[in-house]
Amino acid sequence: MTYASSIHQLLSIEDKNITFNDTLVLPTVTIKDKTYRQLSGTLSYTPSCCEKCGVQNNHHTVIKYGFKTIRLLLGDINFSPLLLQLKKQRFLCKACGETFIATTTLADKNSHISHIVKRKIIDLLTEEMAMSTIAKHTFVSPHTVIRVLRRTTNTFMTHCHLPETICIDEFKSVQNCVGKMSFIFCDAQTHDIIDVLESRKQQDLIDYFLRFDASERLRVKFVVMDMYKPYIKVIQTCFPNANIIIDKFHVVQHLNRALNRLRVEIMNTYRYSRPTDYRKLKQLWQLVLKNRENLDVERFETHRLFDGLMTEKMIVDYLVDLSPQLSRVHHIINNLKFDIASNDSQQFIDDLNASKSYQLRQYVRTSLNSLMYYIDEIRLSLEYRYTNGPIEGLNNRIKNIKRSGYGYRNFYNLRARILIVNRLFKNKKTDNEEHSSLSANKVA
Fold it and tell me: What is the pTM of this model?
């Protein structure tokens, strides 16, 4: 095998019209204070017709007319950037008198960056990595990375179909967004992002969803959301057949916030009168919020704030007994959390109604009244297994994307990065899993 054939295979150059010398020499060149390894090649072939006028190349109508030398970035070799100094054949058409240059599948026309480098950029864009870091690894400018990002995202097909179950949520976006919050929704079954919108305002969402065909909107059976009231009107207007499900995690979070606020209030009353109990309530807040059935009742351990051996259950009993109000609210909220964990919708409604007979703090009563307002949506969340877990996982990935890039100022760049990470990363993961299964089958 000649050096030229080895170079084609080594650098994944599929264009057979590019030829190399059999002497493998890679001199170094310096361009704009950057050192490159340079490979020389020639691109030449016999065209079938003139690219300008379209006349067929019969009887040497199109002749070779010298060369034009360009430099193509191929990637790196031994951690050094590699350039291809390519002599591209120039052609002259005798029929129209125009000249044109030979083309190659190695790069786009008038582009000095090969498809190999662009594929590497796209591959790195699926990772949680700053675009400036990607530019550094691929020896291009950050603006080139942004252009590749936008062009790749433009190739994604716009969704015109809606799944039967969707999850909706918002996330903290860029500074120039309205309210600094953007809207995201995904398929509850496949966890694929359907779209990311700049605004979460009610009218903006209604205008967006009404673009979908009425038959598609009527197909939606369930919409999973948090307790953000403006979304309800959006769903009722755009998805008349959809049932609204309030995510169970947000219900538990809502209850824990009310309980924690009461703990802080009781704790502050003991700040100077009973400093030891103040420290206990302050430092052991996690045990107060822990589900009652998950407290350890068997393991006795010493604790620096208590005398003798104590279990988690004994510690919590002591803390909530410091205030009758705290003990009452702790009992009510734990009953409700147990009903949620047991998916017992009727018992949840009964316990919520039973709490009306107690005199509670105003903010605790407001929290319970909010659950009563959403009681139909919460009941469905206990009867069906749909949650906002998929979209919360996507939001965590968005946070990592923003953190790795030290924040974003342009919403459309952030949206493009979110879509490319979600769609291409999932495809890459699927390909890796298939490759692993094939390898395992071969071993077996």
Answer: 0.80
d(CA 277, CA 306) in angstroms, rounded, equals: 10
Q: 165-247+387-409 sits in which CATH class?
A: alpha beta
pLDDT, tens digit, 9 for 90 and up, residues 55-109: 998 888 999 999 999 999 998 888 889 999 999 999 999 999 999 999 999 999 8
String of b and e for 274-302 (b: at least 16 CB within 10 Å)? eeebbebbeebbeebbbeeeebeeeeeee
Distance set, CA 381 to CA 23, 36, 226, 235, 374 (Å): 70, 60, 11, 16, 11
Alpha carbon 69 to chain centroid, angstroms: 42
Domain locations in the chain? Answer: 3-111, 113-155+410-444, 165-247+387-409, 248-383
Query: Cβ distance 183 to 172 under 8 Å?
Result: no
Strands annotated E in 57-154: 62-77, 80-93, 99-101
What stretch of H or E contains 353?
helix 345-354
pLDDT, tens only, 137-191: 999 999 999 999 999 888 776 677 899 999 999 999 888 787 789 999 999 999 9
